[in-house]
Specification:
The complex is a heterodimer. Helices cover about 5% and strands about 45% of the residues of chain A. By secondary structure, chain A is mainly β. Chain A has a domain at about 10-185: YVTN repeat-like/Quinoprotein amine dehydrogenase (Methylamine Dehydrogenase, Chain H). In chain A, the strands form seven sheets. In chain A, strands 2-3-4-5-9 form a five-stranded mixed beta sheet, with no helix packed on it. Chain B is mainly alpha-helical. Among the domains of chain B are: about 260-415, no CATH class; about 435-625, no CATH class; about 645-829, no CATH class. Chain B contains 25 helices and no strands. Chain B is elongated, with a radius of gyration of 58 Å. The chains are: A mainly beta, B mainly alpha. At the A-B interface, loops of A face helix 21 and helix 22 of B. Chain B: Belongs to the VPS51 family. Chain B: This is Vacuolar protein sorting-associated protein 51 homolog. Chain B: Component of the Golgi-associated retrograde protein (GARP) complex. Component of the endosome-associated retrograde protein (EARP) complex. Chain B: One of its GO terms (cellular component) is EARP complex.
Chain lengths: ~375, ~850
């Protein structure tokens, strides 16, 4: 069928920041932040109409600067954070802030799409996530499945846990951790673990991955030399609490069990350049999406280390459905770890890829030239996982 | 007409004509045997006048029909002539036979007269005989009584003599005992035994029997004593055994005694051998001490071994085996022979056969031999295991040969014994063990060579009278250095390759001794087949090649992603080595092996292609890794240079940055290094001035146009148009992709990695006006020098384009530098 074809959307500007709107579970919606030094930067709210295969976009202005990282609140659809570069007096400063979308952006004249380009609305600043001591935020992480009141920002070698108060207009640092060691250490990325009551954080700096306990703000594990070169991104398996994936400049994607950090449990070497992003599917953790500066997006099926290594467990209900199902089950050979598909729609480095929060079979990827591609998990695999 | 001739089958020696007639008669009656079948056909003809089926009507008709009158007349005269001659023949025959008949009649008449006279004489004779018979009967009647008496007397006489013998028996036996004439004593006793047994109810006989028993017991005792003492010769011993057997001594017990006696002697031999083996744990045997600790437990207990800490450390294995053969095996053979003579062969013939002795005795012998042989074998095996030194294989082979040969004697004596097979197994085990040792020796040799190479690569070559080395003393493989060391790379490669090959050859030669013609066990099927194919080819040669490939591959894995531990030059060298293996060395080595060992492949073997594929894979992996490591080293430089600089507030570029010069220098030195080992490779054709031309296109027209398009604020949508169009038409570039086995491809790979890193780093920064210009200058400089290294210069152009383009995008104040100024700066260096 035609609807398996990718849907491509082009932005006018270069872009690196992409996120799914986490709090939205009905509509398929992604947020993209642009990078432009000369024009006002924008946040594109991209709605995908699954039935008609149409993209609807809304643009909000983000005048503060070019966006390096974007995060959507898990509780409030309208709230998001960005990390951006501000240039002033020939100095470039990295900042982070919490924003609110104007409440009527959705209603903003859908009948004339050009309208939004003419007078796009501006984001409403809720608060800055900076203080004088800590700047240069690399990324801001929302508490997974939280109430939208806690965020962590990674700035230089500090991890800061912020409490947002008064409808997020006030942010105070409740605790912080500092990475200490030789040289200029700097966090490059991080991930807030959804497990253990959201009390753990994993960060990457240079070639190392570190785990932190947020209650004591102390390091709990450290994977030295997790990658041969810089670690670019991390992700937690949403269903297996100790499983973590990472990617980096050695073109590899590695899967770790943080209880044993000597060796990765699995390594993928499919990309031919640095891997910038790795994402587990939120519901079916065997599906792993990786984006690389070789302009490729790769969807892998890591059955052997997923929470369903033997495929979907058959419920009693399904058992009673009849013998046809049984025969089908027997016919199915166990799935192997494999690359499901390689997506080559991008022409430039792909820096970000995200699963939709509404449809577990749909994902978006963003390349530097501003091309956003929305793809689906191949139907055959989807049915194979479901049935 | 031949009827009369019938009776007169002639014996006369007459003329030929007669014989012919005779022949014809014979023929007529079908007596002739020779011509039977042939004649049959002929004589069926009714017109054949001589044939049995002659029909005169037919004949006449035929004549009348076929012949003319003249012919008929001729025929008639001829016929008449023939008839006449036949008639005369007949007459002659009749006459001759008549004479014979007359003479026969005369003879008969004479015989009749003679017989009558004889009859009368016979009558006289019979009358005389009747008279003689009568007289004879009369005489015997008178002598009857006396005869009976004499018979009785003689019976009594013999009985008395027997009784006398019996009564004298004890004394006689005693005397024999004194004189040690055991054989006679036994003989006498045997004669009397039955009688005594029969009449033992009579008191007197009983007494004699008891006496005899006592004496014989004593005698048996003495024999046993003699037997036990063992000092006696084999002949004495066998006599003893024979006598004891005759004395109803249980054969089983005797066997046991004999064997235990022999065992004690053999065991002393074994202990002597054991003493030869070095006591444990000696320094050289520590390695596998644990494996042999069990075996050695007994050895340690013997005081002898512990008394002399290392009594025979200099006895070589040949001496040891020699001693084992001469002492143990030969006395074992002796024991077997005499035992067989005593218990098996003799018993088979003697009256003892019924007692099933041979079977029992054989069983005992086999158990005995097996037991002792097992101990001997364990000793030999221990000794063989000590042969760790790989140096001289011939000694071991000769020792094994001797060992094996001497065991053949046992085979001959004991056809069913498992001993020779066990011996062969030991030889086989020793051989396989040896092969394993050779393999590990080869492996360690290889690793040592690699260490040497590594050292040679790492050593500053100042000591080598740095004449050939311009820079001198740079560490090869260090990021800065590749440029000086490589002079020695091909030498290192060839010497490494040659020394490995030599080592393989010498090992093959050593192993070949196992299959030499003059070695007895080389005829065993194992050594002909499995040893050659499985042992030598598979587990030695193939394993070694696999090891080489595998250890090479490990350099890629274990070196870690930092790539620091293995010098890149070593990777390059190993890659070339593996490639050489793939192209020629492997097939050469295997052919050599197959030829030397005449391998007959019964079992599946690893084909050459598999090994070659493996070698190629290893070579590819090493080369890829080399590219990656070198690319990383340069990338790291570029990354640091981009990340650490404040590009917004930089000064106007006056020079090419030092790091770019360094990049070009390193690339050049890598180029030289790779060029030493790999061929040039194909690059896309370009004219001599292509650098200038493409360069000018790159920098002036296209680039300028692009800047113009990009930075007019009125057209934000066109920002990426040109670069996108460009990308549409250019192929996707795989950065960390596999490279080909040539210089250009390798260098292209390295440059790709470096420039892509440069691009990604640039994209993460923000630039000021001079920052952009500096990048322009740097890229132009790279452009000037790097195009010549790569297969497709457009690749370099494209990547550098991207870098400049990206930095322009990331520039706060994009004001590109004049092309001419850039050129001036770059040419100034």
């Amino acid at each position: 069928m035609e609807d398996d074809a990718p849907v491509i959307y082009g932005l006018e500007f270069q872009a690196r920041a992409l996120t799914a709107q986490t709090a939205e579970t009905d509509a398929i919606r992604f947020l993209v932040g642009t990078q432009s030094l000369k024009f006002d930067n924008q946040i594109h709210i991209i709605d995908f109409d699954d039935e008609n295969n149409i993209i609807n976009k809304n643009v909000l202005l983000h005048q503060a600067g070019e966006i390096w990282h974007i995060g959507a609140s898990p509780a409030d659809k309208a709230v998001l954070t960005t990390c951006y570069n501000k240039t002033s007096d020939s100095r470039v400063v990295s900042c982070a802030a919490v924003w609110r979308m104007p409440c009527d952006w959705e209603t903003g004249s859908p009948e004339s799409p050009d309208d939004s380009a003419h007078n796009p609305q501006t984001l409403e600043l809720l608060c800055h996530l900076d203080d004088s001591a800590h700047s240069n935020a690399a990324c801001v992480l929302w508490e997974p499945m939280g109430d939208g009141k806690r965020v962590i920002s990674l700035a230089d070698n500090h991890a800061l846990l912020w409490d947002l108060q008064d409808s997020s207009t006030q942010a105070t640092v409740s605790s912080s951790a500092t990475l200490e060691g030789k040289g200029q250490l700097k966090f490059t990325s991080g991930k807030w673990s959804p497990h253990h009551n959201c009390s753990q954080l994993a960060t990457a700096n240079d070639t190392a991955i570190r785990g932190w306990d947020l209650r004591t703000m102390s390091q709990i594990y450290c994977i030295e030399n997790a990658h041969g070169q810089l670690v670019r991104d991390l992700d937690f398996n949403p269903n297996r609490q100790y499983y973590l994936s990472s990617c980096g400049d050695d073109c590899k994607v590695k899967f770790w069990d943080v209880r044993n950090v000597q060796e990765p449990i699995k390594t993928l070497e499919e990309h031919s350049h640095w891997v910038w992003s790795v994402r587990y599917n939120h519901s079916h953790d065997q599906l792993v999406l990786t984006a690389s500066s070789d302009s490729r997006l790769i969807l892998s099926n890591m059955v052997s280390i997923s929470s369903e290594p033997f495929g979907h467990l058959v419920d009693d209900e399904e058992l009673s459905e009849g013998e046809d199902n049984h025969q089908e089950d027997k016919g199915k050979e166990p799935l192997q770890d494999s690359v499901v598909s390689t997506y080559e729609e991008h022409e430039d480095s792909v820096y970000a890829a995200e699963w939709s929060s509404a449809d577990p079979w749909l994902f978006a990827s963003l390349s530097y030239d501003g091309r956003l591609v929305i793809n689906r998990v191949p139907r055959a695999l989807k049915y194979r996982i479901l049935l | 007409m031949d009827g009369e001739a019938d009776g007169m089958v002639s014996e006369t020696d007459e003329s030929g004509r007669k014989r012919r007639v005779h022949g014809m008669l014979k023929l007529y009656y079908g007596l002739d045997e020779e011509g039977k079948a042939a004649e049959q056909a002929k004589s069926l003809d009714p017109c054949d006048i001589n044939g049995p089926h002659f029909d005169h009507e037919v004949f006449l008709n035929k004549l009348r029909r076929e012949c003319s009158l003249a012919e008929l007349m001729d025929q008639e005269t001829c016929m008449v002539k023939q008839i006449r001659s036949l008639d005369s023949d007949m007459q002659t025959l009749v006459y001759e036979n008549y004479n014979k008949f007359i003479s026969a009649t005369d003879t008969i008449r004479k015989m009749k007269n003679d017989f009558k006279k004889m009859e009368d004489e016979m009558d006289g004779l019979s009358a005389n005989m009747a008279a003689i018979t009568e007289f004879s009967a009369c005489i015997s009647g008178t002598l009857q009584d006396q005869h009976a008496q004499i018979t009785k007397l003689s019976g009594v006489h013999t009985l008395l003599r027997k009784l006398q013998f019996l009564f004298e028996l004890p004394a006689r036996l005693n005397k024999c005992l004194e004189l040690q004439a055991y054989a006679q004593a036994v003989r006498s006793h045997r004669r009397a035994r039955c009688v005594l047994q029969q009449y033992s109810h009579l008191p007197s006989f009983k007494g004699i029997q008891d006496d005899c028993h006592a004496i014989m017991d004593k005698l048996a005792q003495e024999l046993r004593q003699k037997f036990r003492d063992g000092g006696s010769s084999a002949k004495d011993l066998s006599e003893c055994v024979e006598l004891l057997l005759q004395l109803d001594e249980p054969a089983e017990e005797l066997c046991d005694k004999f064997l235990s006696h022999a065992r004690s002697r053999l065991e002393s031999d074994l202990q002597g051998l054991e003493a030869e083996i070095r006591p444990y744990p000696s320094a050289s045997a520590v390695k596998d001490a644990s494996a042999r600790r069990l075996a050695s437990a007994s050895a340690d207990n013997t005081p002898k071994t512990s008394a002399f800490p290392s009594p025979t450390s200099n006895t070589d294995i040949l001496e040891f085996i020699d001693r084992g053969c001469n002492e143990f095996v030969s006395s074992l053979c002796l024991v077997i022979t005499s035992y067989q003579e005593l218990f098996i062969n003799r018993a088979q013939t003697g009256e003892l056969a019924s007692k099933n002795i041979p079977q029992m005795a054989n069983g005992k012998l086999n158990a005995f031999v097996d037991d002792l042989a097992a101990r001997y074998f364990s000793l030999v095996e221990r000794r063989i295991q000590e042969e760790k030194g790989v140096g001289d294989n011939s000694l071991l082979v000769r020792a094994l040969d001797r060992f094996h040969r001497r065991l053949q004697a046992v085979t001959k004596l004991l056809p069913g014994s498992a001993v020779p097979n066990q011996g062969t197994e030991i030889v086989i085990r020793a051989a396989t063990e040896r092969v394993k040792q050779y393999l590990s020796a080869l492996q360690s040799f290889y690793m040592d060579s690699l260490t040497d190479v590594r050292q040679a690569l790492a050593t500053p070559r100042l000591s080598m009278a740095g004449a050939s080395l311009a820079g001198g003393g740079a560490l090869l493989g260090g990021p800065a250095s590749g440029r000086d060391g490589p002079t020695s790379l091909p030498e290192l490669l060839s010497s490494l390759s040659a020394s490995i090959l030599n080592q393989i050859k010498s090992v093959l030669a050593s192993v070949h001794l196992f299959t030499a013609k003059d070695i007895a066990f080389s005829n065993k099927p194992y050594f002909k087949g499995e040893f050659c194919s499985q042992g030598v080819r598979e587990s030695l040669v193939v394993s070694f090649i696999k090891f080489v490939c595998q250890s090479s591959r490990q350099f890629c894995d274990s070196a870690g992603d930092k790539g620091g531990s293995t010098p890149p030059a070593l990777l390059l060298l190993l890659s070339r080595l593996c490639l050489d293996y793939e192209t020629s060395t492997i097939s050469y080595i295997l052919t050599l092996t197959d030829e030397q060992f005449l391998v007959q492949h019964h079992s599946p073997i690893t084909p050459v292609t598999t090994l070659c594929a493996e070698a190629r894979e290893a070579a590819q992996k090493l080369l890829n890794h080399y590219v990656k490591v070198q690319g990383l080293i340069i990338s790291q430089m570029l990354r640091k240079s981009v990340e650490t600089r404040d590009w917004v507030n930089t000064i106007e570029p006056r020079n090419v940055r030092a790091v770019m010069k360094r990049v070009v220098e390193d690339t050049t030195s890598i180029d030289v290094q790779v060029g030493l080992l790999y061929e040039e490779g194909v690059r896309k054709a370009h004219s001599s001035d292509s650098s200038k031309r493409t360069f000018s296109v790159y920098s002036s027209s296209r680039q300028q146009a692009r800047y113009a398009a990009s930075y007019t604020p009125s057209a934000p949508m066109d920002t990426n148009l040109l670069s996108n169009i460009h990308k549409l038409f250019s192929e996707r570039i795989d950065i960390f992709s596999s490279v080909e086995f040539n210089k250009v491809s390798v260098i292209t790979g390295i440059i790709k990695i470096s420039l892509k890193t440069f691009l990604e780093c640039v994209r993460l920064r923000t630039f000021g006006r001079f920052g952009l210009q500096q990048i322009q200058v740097d890229c132009h400089y790279l452009q000037m020098y790097l195009w010549r290294f790569v297969s497709d210069e457009n690749l370099v152009h494209f990547l550098l384009d991207e870098i400049v383009g990206s930095s322009a995008h990331r520039c706060l104040d994009p004001a590109p530098m004049e092309q001419s100024v850039i050129e001036v700066i770059c040419e100034r260096g």
